[in-house]
Every structure is written in structure tokens, then in C-alpha cells.
Amino acid sequence: MTPIQISGLAGQWVAAIACMIGIVVVLHGVGIEMKYKADRGFKWVTAGALLIAIASFVFAIATKFLGF
């Protein structure tokens, strides 16, 4: 494997892990928001985790389509 293929493969795995962590944070955050009627700051954390999960998913799929 070439260094760029190794980098793409590692990036794909890291993005997939970040996506999974983001999904867990979002689900846990929504549960806390519903249970404790969270304030605006915590809602921004949950929204940010959702954006990270979506971006990581797109990155993982993009590197997969490149053939790595």
C-alpha cells in the first residue's frame, strides 16, 4: 500500500469512530435535554455533536468512494 492509501484508510476509520461517538453524544444529549429541560448551551453541544457526526459520516463515505 502506498502512503496515501494508508492515510485514506486511517482517515476512514477515524471518521467512522468519530461518527459513532457523535451519534452517542447526540442520543445521550437529547435524553438529558428531555429529562432536565436543558438550557440553550447544552442544546448547542448536542447540535454540534450532530454536525460532527454528519460530517464524519460524509468523510468516511467519501474516502470509501475514492477506493481506499
Which descriptors would you attach to this protein?
rod-shaped, 68 residues, 2 helices
Order of helices and strands: HH
Helix residue percentage: over 70%
Largest sheet: none
The class by helix and strand makeup works out as: mainly alpha
The number of strands is 0
The averaged pLDDT comes out at 85
The total count of helices amounts to 2
Strand content: under 5%
Structure characterization notes:
- The protein is 88% helix and 0% strand.
- The protein is mainly alpha-helical.
- The protein has a domain of 46 residues.
- The mean pLDDT is 85.
- Helix 1 packs antiparallel against helix 2.
Quickly describe the structure.
By secondary structure, the chain is mainly alpha-helical.
Topology:
Elements: H1 3-36, H2 40-65
